[in-house]
Structure formats: C-alpha cells, structure tokens
Design goal:
The protein is α/β, with parallel strands linked by helices. Helices cover 33% and strands 23% of the residues. It is built from nine helices and eight strands. The relative contact order is 0.15.
C-alpha cells in the first residue's frame, strides 16, 4: 500500500531545503543511473570538513539528531527514501538547530551516484526492514548487493553498525557480512541487558523494548 502524501508536503520540503538533498534521476535502473555521477560537495554543504558518517533508513530522525548532537566532530548524512518520512526528520533537525546533520532523499542503491568512493567512516543500519520472505532477501540492507556498495563507499578503516529486533535478519546479516570480507566485533544478542554504553534509542527501538523483545547489535569492519 502506498503511503498517502502529507498535507502541504511540497511546502514543508521547501522549508527544509537547506538540510535536504533530493536525488532525482530519469533512469530507474540504478545500475546505469549511478554511472551518471552527481557528487555532493560535503565540505560546502556542511560548511566544515569533518569525518562523514552515514545512516541508511533514518526514519523520522531521532537517532540522527541525537547522534549528531552528541558528536559535533563528525558530519552525519541521514538517508531515507520516503518524502513523507524524511520531511519530519529534517524539521526535527532544523528545530533543534543541528548544524552537522544533512539528509538525502534516495534509495540506498543510488548512493554511489552522490557519494565518492572511500568517503564514509561509518554506516549505521538501524532497524532496517527485514523483508522476511526469502524471495525478497536481496532487498535487505545487509544483502550482498548492498554490502558491495558499502565497501566502495567506506574508507578502508570504516565500519558498519547494525541494530535490529529481528533475529532472522541478524543471523542473515552475520552470514552475509562474514561471506563478503567483513569481520565482526561487539556483537550483542540482548543490547539492553548488556554493558554497552552510549546507545541512542530509536523510535522503533522504544516500541520493541516495551514489548519485551531483545535488541541485536553488531559492528562490522573490513578485514
């Protein structure tokens, strides 16, 4: 079911245009679309050259805003493909005056069109859609086709940090990461009952924890 557009969506997007880059391409085939580069000048956009961190699937922006506020020494890019959702994230960032956070409206498949290789220090995947049916496995954000993109975007020392409530997605992620040249560290099968410090609770995370579900977390780095 398609999400119904919010009222005054166009006006709201325009009001946060200083925070938002909207990826547009006439080519619906991302394999060929990414060949037509449209790189973003992040130093100019952020106004300061700092390490680039990337959250893919930022939702309404709670994690992105809090992480950016707590880490003023980095520039955080938050990606979301739904205009109805990303507009709320941009409005939250603007209302709180967060200067080291920007948003890209795009599907993850198109990120290479806008981000140069070996630019990103860290990628966050927070509560990505698990696509539980096996026939949709390639849509999972830790499937091999996405990991190939991340490997090109990440610096050699870069990392992927994942959180999810879905055990099957977590198992799938571990398998895919291990098979594609990543090593794992700081793996938790119950984050909220671990000694991990500094966790920023997302919108979905609040809901899952209130239901008594464990939160799974890992960090992956290239061998």
């Amino acid at each position: 079911m398609r999400m119904r557009h919010k009222k005054h969506l166009g006006e709201r997007l325009e009001a946060v245009s200083d925070y938002l880059y909207i990826s547009n391409s006439d080519d619906r085939n991302f394999n060929t679309a990414v060949l037509n580069k449209d790189y973003i000048d992040f130093t100019a956009w952020f106004g300061k050259e700092q390490p680039i961190f990337l959250e893919i699937g930022c939702g309404k922006g709670k994690f992105a805003v809090e992480y950016a506020k707590q880490n003023p020494h980095i520039n955080l890019l938050a990606v979301e493909k739904e205009a109805n959702v990303i507009v709320s994230a941009c409005e939250l960032a603007k209302a709180q005056g967060v200067t080291n956070l920007r948003f890209i409206k795009a599907s993850a498949e198109y990120l290479e069109r806008h981000i140069k290789e070996q630019t990103v220090e860290r990628i966050f995947l927070n509560f990505s859609c698990p696509f539980p049916k096996n026939k949709y496995a390639s849509h999972r954000l830790t499937a091999e086709n996405f990991l190939k993109i991340y490997k090109r975007l990440l610096k050699p020392s870069g990392e992927i940090h994942q959180k999810t409530d879905n055990m099957k997605l977590f198992e799938f992620s571990i398998e895919q990461l291990s098979a594609n040249g990543f090593a794992l560290k700081n793996v938790s099968l119950d984050l909220h009952n671990s000694n991990f410090e500094g966790n920023i609770v997302t919108e979905y995370e609040n809901r899952f924890v209130s239901m008594g579900l464990p939160i799974y977390r890992l960090e992956a780095y290239m061998k």
